[in-house]
Design goal:
The chain is mainly beta. It contains three helices and 25 strands.
């Protein structure tokens, strides 16, 4: 992927807004819908992800509580609870929550009607040193319980202890989104660098990677990592990928990756590709760094010009790694907590049909606008560039947008850290 990202030139108000780190708000016209919203579930504790069955049944996770399901009639069943929970049908005391880690992603097997299987990504204390795991679970007939837990991946990197970094608690930079590709049928698993400079470029540690595996956790046929790498690795050299989706026409996997006080990224993944993140000290012109991790350097606790910080600690280091995957978009040099991605599909979305939507948690630092929003991205079919960026007009207002999923009804569902799941309907 040697093509450099391009962006259609912007003028007037659009250019001013982009310089400020904010896209223009897309206004409804004859080609785009008006939006309304309803609250689907409320009162949740740190909800993280959701996944649907064709009839509208919605599985969802709460980071420090566990896996639940909302049935089409609105009833909620609590299925698999974590350590110290008491109101779930089943409890697993090894499933733990700390920092950004806990029960994160959830996805439904494409053949659920035949095998009644769901998958979750969760931190676990089952190993001597905590790891992140991908759990395969069987759902009973009335969707009131799960059983037959199988940990198909049990060795994803986890940050075991706090360090002197921003967001420096144990469990930091934990990744956690899991999705089946409708194109190849394999399960993609996104992981984080765990504030460990050695992890992203490591051939054996599974942090800072995107894995591609089958339903038993084995390497997907056709994976092509460099020689000596774990065969489950699809791409490597990532910082903290928390969004993954697939182009509706090409199946191209697209990820969103958190930036380090600068340059959130959208990337199209290439089998065996290096995303170019390498926060090790004493390389690329850098000296020692706190706890052997240069990921927020220089001046990690202070504001500074994002482009200066990028020059010192790039998210995609093309000087060290000339063949690194080039980002399609870098959030106008800003880091605002890019967290989730989905494509809008269907004629109900009018002119937004085929747009990539990305959610931001919102992180204000060093004069950076907080930026809690959902962006509409007109991304090129090959995923290498974007043609236009605008902001979805939110009928419910801003929040920390943790997960965005298009439901089987064609509406857009978004889950927010504040504890709600909203349904956004195009009128």
């Amino acid at each position: 992927m040697s093509q450099k990202p391009t962006m259609r030139s912007l003028s007037g108000v659009m250019a001013t807004a982009m310089i400020a780190g904010l896209a223009t708000t897309a206004t409804a016209n004859k080609d785009t819908p008006e939006l309304s919203h309803t609250t689907v579930v409320s009162g949740l504790e740190n909800p993280w992800d959701m996944a649907f069955l064709p009839d509208g049944t919605m599985f969802f996770t709460e980071k420090c509580r566990g896996l639940s399901v909302r049935l089409p009639n609105g009833d909620v069943n609590k299925l698999l609870g974590m350590e110290d929970t008491e109101d779930y049908a089943t409890t697993a005391d090894d499933l733990v929550c700390q920092g950004q880690a806990g029960m994160n992603g959830v996805t439904v097997d494409p053949d659920f009607e035949e095998n009644r299987t769901v998958y979750v990504y969760s931190a676990s204390s089952m190993s001597d040193e905590r790891t992140n795991r991908v759990l395969r679970l069987k759902v009973n007939d009335d969707i009131s319980n799960v059983s037959d837990r199988t940990d198909i991946v049990d060795d994803i990197s986890y940050k075991p202890a706090p360090t002197d970094h921003p967001f420096g608690d144990a469990g930091a930079h934990n990744g956690g989104r899991i999705r089946f590709s409708p194109e190849d049928g394999f399960l993609y698993v996104t992981t984080g660098d765990t504030h460990n400079g050695e992890v992203p470029q490591s051939p054996t540690m599974l942090g800072g990677k995107v894995l591609r595996i089958d339903r038993d956790g084995k390497a997907a046929e056709g994976n092509n990592p460099p020689e000596g790498f774990d065969p489950r690795i699809f791409t490597y050299g990532h910082r903290n990928v928390q969004g993954i989706t697939f182009h509706p026409e090409t199946g191209q996997p697209i990820v969103t990756e958190h930036g380090p006080w600068h340059h959130d990224e959208i990337n199209a993944l290439v089998n065996g590709g290096n995303s170019g993140w390498d926060p090790r000290p004493n390389m690329a012109g850098r000296d020692d760094c706190p706890d052997n991790y240069c990921g927020y350097q220089p001046n990690q606790g202070e504001g500074m010009d994002p482009d200066e910080r990028e020059a010192y600690m790039p998210v995609t280091d093309t000087e060290t790694y000339p063949d690194a995957m080039k980002p399609a978009w870098q959030n106008n040099s800003l880091s605002q907590g890019i967290a989730t991605a989905e494509f809008l599909t269907g004629e109900q979305w009018g002119g937004w049909d085929g747009r990539l939507v990305i959610g931001f948690l919102g992180i204000g630092f060093g004069g950076t606008p907080v930026g809690q929003r959902i962006n509409l991205i007109d991304i090129a079919q090959d995923g290498l560039s974007v043609n236009d960026v605008s902001e979805l007009p939110l009928p419910m207002g801003s929040a920390r947008f943790r997960s965005i999923v298009q439901g089987p009804d064609g509406d857009l569902y978004t889950l927010v850290d504040e504890g709600d799941i909203y349904r956004i309907t195009p009128e």
